[in-house]
Every structure is written in C-alpha cells, then in structure tokens.
Specification:
Belongs to the transpeptidase family. InterPro entries: Beta-lactam/transpept, Beta-lactam/transpept-like, PBP_dimer, PBP_dimer_sf, PCN-bd_Tpept, Penicillin-binding_protein_2. There is one protein chain. This protein is 40% helix and 22% strand. With 618 residues, the chain is of the alpha+beta class. The protein has 2 domains: 178 residues, Penicillin-binding protein 2a (Domain 2); 345 residues, DD-peptidase/beta-lactamase superfamily (Beta-lactamase). Helix 15 crosses helix 17, helix 15 crosses helix 18 and helix 17 crosses helix 21. The radius of gyration is 35 Å and the shape is elongated.
Length: 618
C-alpha cells in the first residue's frame, strides 16, 4: 500500500506541475499575442523591404576647353522616415535639432511638406562632428538615416557667381511649375543664373534602391539598385582666362576707388562706388566671352544649403552682392547713347563726317539752357570730332532737329538697337530698361501738363540722360551692332548641352534679333568717331599706346541726386577687325575715366594673349 500510495501521490504532483506549466504557457501566449500583440506586430512589420530614392547628380557646367566650373561631390546627409519614429518623432526632432543647430519646428515643417511615408532630407552636407554624434546616438534616433548624397561643388567659389547661379530646395511656386516633370517637395533645383535657366537639362533622373530595414528604419542589407541618371552638362562660350581677367580688374578698380574716396573723407553714402559690371562678347555672333558683376559672393555657401545667418548677411549687405548688375542694373547710358542719336542724324538729317558745328558751351531752347560738359565750349568742330570729344552741344542740336522731324523718331532708332527691351540673354530675370516717349509719360502721369512730351525731353535723351534706362548687356549689344555693321544678336552664354554619354542634346546657334536697315556709310562714320575717342578724344590717354586700335565711347550718367554719377565705357577691338566687344559699368563710379583702366587691361590681356602662338606650334 505504502509504495502504491507514494506512486499515486507522485503522479498527482506531476499532474499538478503539468497543469501549472500548461496554464503558464497559455497565459504567456495570451500576454504575448493579445496584450503585446500590437507592439510585436509593429516590430515584425518594421523588418521589411523599403524603397528609397537615390538622388541623381546634376549636370556639370564647364567651359569650351573642358574646364569644369561646377560639378558634384558626395556629402553626408541626414534624413528621417517619420513613420519609423512613430510616437517618438517629437523627441527625435528635438535631439536632432540640438545636434544640427536647427529649430525642431523647421525640421517638422520639412516633414509636413513631404509626408510621413517617405524619407525626408533634413540637412545636407553635415559636418564630421555632426555625423559622429548622430552615429553614436542612433539607438535614440529612430527613423533617422545617414546617407551620402551628391551636393553641388562650385570649384572656384566666387568665380562667375552671378552667371553660374546657385541651387536650393524647391519653393512652392517652383514645385507648382515643375510638378508635371516629377519634382517633389525638398528636391534641389536651380535658384539663379544658369542653374535656374537650364534646370530642365541639369536635373537628372533619380534612381531607387530596395533595402531591408529594421524597425528603426536602419538598413540591414541592400536587395537591389536602379542607378540614377545624371543630368546633362552645359558647355559655355565663356573664355576662362578672360573671365578671370575681367573679375580681377573690376574688383581691384572698385576697391581702389572706394579707398580713394575714403582717403578724401567723402561721405560714405555719396562718395563711394557701390558696384559694377563687365560684359564681353564676340560682336560677330553674340557669344558671351565673359560676364561679371561686383561685388560677388561665394557660391560654395549654397552647396549644402546656406545658413540663415549667411543668407541674412548677403541680403542685408548695402552693396547688394546677390544683385546681377550685368543684366539688372538699368541707369541712363550717358553719352554712349550718342551712337544712337548719331545714327538717326546721319540717316534722317543728312549729317556726314564733315558736317560742321559750333559749340559756345551750351544750347538754349525756350529759355532753358543745356550745358556742354566743357565750360566755354569747343568752338568749331565736325561730326567725327563731336563723337570723339563727346560734345553735348552738337547732340543737343541734333536731338532737337530729330524732335522737330518726328517726336518719336529718336526713340524708334533706340528700339531698333534693342534698347527698352530684353536682349534674350540666357539668364533669368533680365531687366527690360526703358526708352521714354510721349506714350510712356501719358501712362505714368495723371496731370495733363506732365503728360506733354516737350522738346527738352528729347534733347536730354539725345545725350543718354533723362528717364532712359539701359543695362550693360543692352549696351554691349549696341556697340557690337556698330562694330559688325548692323546685326543685333541675342547674347548666348551656353554653347551646347551634352548628355552623360557625351552626345550633343542641344546646339545653340546665334539668334538674330534684328538687322538694322541702315546704310554702310553710317556705320563707317560712327566707327571713325569711336576710333577718334581712343586716338585723340576723351579716352586717348589710356588707349593710344596699345599695339592695336580700339573703337570706344565713354559715358557719364547723372544720377539726379547727391550721389556720384554712374560711369560707362563701351567699345570693341581691334577696330579694323573686331573680335571682342566690351562694356564696363561702375555704379556711382563718378566719371567714365574710372572705367578706362579696367577696359584697357581687359582688352590688352585678351587680345595680346590671343595673338601669341600656341605652345608646340610649328
């Protein structure tokens, strides 16, 4: 009995143990599947396949000889998959904001624009320090991804900044315009310059990669890759050496003039030049050889996204470094406009090279006295000398005669030369300028007395003053037309577009805007007068010793206030075989004489270097 009872008792205890284990297993299973089921379902779903975009590199920008001006480099970038962060998103953004020195609200704005189901780029081109801190804190940053993505590499920093332009995150207005082409929020697009003008060529096609990720959104392994296709390259007409010469001389002269003004204790708001521009092109086809605006800025600031501090510094700078004076500044042209008045006078009034004039130092109309720049006048002189010495009195007289013939005759010639309208240069936001006329006054002014176009308005216009507005690129077109005998070209910076396989996608041929219906003799007279400017006239002291002849025209445009006048020089060389046309503009540069050293050094360096035989030549 004793043995049997002991056996039964053991069976009983064993059964109890079995029941307890079974109940425990059932309870545990209930707890895992019912109580924690939702959590583990999410974790299980977290280990899944994810599709991520691979940003395509933008196309390069280079010169004709293959020198790369803008390229791409790989940089560490911080992104986040919001759905991976889940309820910890707020905390994650707070931690990231502290690391990246960005307000969490700014990071959240990026996410809200993009949506919660895609990876959102939060900051491009992070520092090595930021990278290390994020990597060390990965377990505390669910959904955060570190990738290497292409960012813009502006090889020469400040070089041609206004022409090349910069990139940035797509704006709402740009997204509306580009959405049809597959663009999305947070995409990088061109904002200014060629980067904007040729956005549809430069932007590549993004690739994709299929990866397995864990519940934190962190990569386990790559399952497949669809490679991105880089954007097309731009090949420019720009001459690299000439562009460097232009920028160096423009900056140096501005610096020198500003220092000279300070040394004279001039009022800073009145006595200092505020900036300038130079445009050089081939007058025979309109190809842009150089284009510069000063002051400029460092394009590299925009490579990974410019900081708020740097952006504010650029935008609040009184010298406006972001403003492209080559295509946007539109002051009066001063005496360069005398080439227009001269054209109209020869064609409509029968003026010849030998036409004689007398200058007492002024021209008087209706009790109003219009003074020559030279007090006391120049006495007797012919038309060629009137151009060479930039005589105001002669052109006042001619302007008045043109007014008597037809109130808008002079304006007609100005517009034929392309003034008052965009040149069509391949850069965004070009200014149109203005050629004022009776219709313009009627639109601008409400009082009848102010709407009347009096003779004095045309007389002022005849020497490039009054309400005339011209841009440097318009004036380089004007002198190019005089040089080539009457053809107005649309200035062209980009020569061609090439895809990533080296195939030409687009060739840009010279576009003719207008062929002036003007006699050959007219241009010959103007050309002779412009050679006189640099041989014995207003610019002779600077140019007459050069080994080639320069045809030029100086201009000083009054500002109408207490500020310094604007300074101009426009010309071409060699005079007997034009290869380059140039305009130099100094905003509040005081006198045209201040533009001459810039023009001389540029023409001298460019033409003498071109005349030198290439190395290894026979």
């Amino acid at each position: 009995m004793g043995v049997e009872n002991k056996f039964n008792q053991r069976v009983k205890y064993f059964g109890i143990i079995i029941i307890i284990l079974f109940v425990t297993l059932i309870g545990r299973s209930f707890y895992l599947q019912i109580i924690l089921g939702n959590k583990y379902q999410k974790l299980a779903n977290g280990n899944r396949i994810d599709i991520r975009d691979i940003q395509a590199p933008r196309g390069k920008i280079k010169t004709k000889d293959g020198r790369v001006l803008v390229s791409n480099r790989l940089a560490y970038t911080v992104s986040i998959i919001p759905e991976k962060a889940q309820e910890e998103l707020t905390l994650t953004l707070k931690k990231l904001g502290e690391i990246l020195k960005v307000k969490p609200t700014k990071l959240r704005d990026k996410i809200e624009k993009k949506g919660n189901h895609k990876s959102v780029v939060l900051k491009r081109d992070i520092s090595q320090e930021e990278l290390v801190i994020i990597e060390e804190s990965k377990s505390e940053l669910p959904g955060v991804i570190i990738d290497k993505l292409p960012v813009r590499d502006y090889v020469y920093g400040h070089f041609a900044s206004h022409m090349l332009g910069y990139v940035g995150e797509i704006s709402a207005s740009q997204l509306k315009e580009y959405e049809q082409f597959g663009y999305e929020t947070n995409d990088i697009v061109g904002k200014t310059g060629l980067e904007l003008e040729y956005e549809r060529y430069l932007q590549g096609k993004d690739g994709r990669k299929q990866i397995e990720v864990n519940n934190l959104g962190q990569k386990i392994r790559v399952l497949g890759v669809e490679q991105p296709i880089s954007g097309d390259d731009l090949v420019l007409n720009i001459d690299f050496k000439l562009q460097k010469i232009v920028e160096k001389n423009l900056k140096n002269e501005l610096k020198k003039l500003r220092q000279k003004a300070k040394d004279k204790n001039s009022e800073e708001s009145q006595g200092l030049p505020t900036g300038g521009a130079v445009v050089a092109l081939n007058p025979n086809n309109g190809k842009v050889l150089a284009l510069a605006s000063a002051p400029d800025y460092n394009l590299s600031l925009f490579s990974g996204g410019i900081s708020i501090k740097k952006w504010e510094e650029l935008n609040t700078n009184s010298l406006r470094p972001l403003f492209n004076r080559a295509i946007k500044s539109a002051p009066p042209s001063g005496s360069i406009f005398k080439l227009v008045t001269g054209t109209a006078a020869i064609e409509e009034l029968g003026i010849t090279a030998n036409s004689q004039f007398y200058d007492p130092g002024y021209y008087k109309v209706g009790g109003i006295r219009f003074n020559n720049w030279l007090t006391g006048g120049q006495g007797n002189l012919d038309f060629i000398d009137a151009i060479a010495f930039s005589n105001n009195t002669v052109f006042y007289k001619l302007g008045h005669r043109l007014y008597k013939t037809d109130k808008v005759l002079l304006q007609k010639y100005a517009r034929n030369y392309g003034l008052g309208q965009k040149t069509g240069i391949d850069l965004p936001n070009e200014a149109s300028g203005l050629v004022p006329d009776p219709t313009w006054r009627e639109k601008i002014f409400s009082k009848r007395i102010n709407q009347i176009w009096f003779p004095g308005y045309t007389i002022n216009l005849s020497i490039g003053q009054g309400n005339l507005k011209t841009t440097p690129v318009q004036l380089v077109n004007l002198v190019s037309a005089v040089a080539n005998g009457g053809t107005i070209y649309s200035p062209q910076i980009v020569d061609k577009v090439i895809n990533n396989q080296g195939k030409v996608v687009k060739n840009f041929k010279s576009q003719i805007l207008n062929k002036l219906n003007i006699e050959k003799k007219t241009f010959e007279i103007l050309q002779e007068g412009m050679v006189g400017v640099t041989n014995y006239g207003t610019a002779a002291y600077m140019f007459k010793k050069l080994p080639f002849k320069v045809a030029g025209k100086t201009g000083t445009a009054q500002t109408g206030g207490n500020r310094n006048n604007h300074a101009w020089f426009a010309g071409y060389a060699p005079a007997d075989n034009p290869q380059v046309a140039i305009v130099v503009f100094l905003e509040h540069g005081n006198s045209s004489s201040n533009t001459l050293p810039i023009a001389k050094r540029i023409l001298e360096s460019y033409l003498i270097s071109k005349a030198k035989p290439a190395k290894n030549s026979q």
